[in-house]
Specification:
By secondary structure, the protein is an all-beta fold. It contains no helices and 4 strands. The N and C termini lie far apart (24 Å). Bound molecules: zinc ion (ZN).
């Protein structure tokens, strides 16, 4: 099963802007932009990551 590129989202650190994670989103379950606490290597700590395009 191929993963559609349209469903891929990039999560970027809100503190330094680094694009740290690529994930996919079920737009039916999550119609809004994703926000997750993730570890940022550049900040070396847990930061809020938001979906970016
Ligand atoms: Zn960061």
């Amino acid at each position: 099963m191929a993963i559609s590129k349209r469903d891929q989202v990039i999560l970027a650190c809100t503190e330094c802007g680094e694009h740290n994670y690529i994930t996919d989103r079920n737009k039916k379950l999550h119609p809004n932009k994703m926000e997750k606490m993730k570890f940022c290597r550049r900040c070396n700590k847990m930061t809020l990551h938001k979906e970016c395009k």
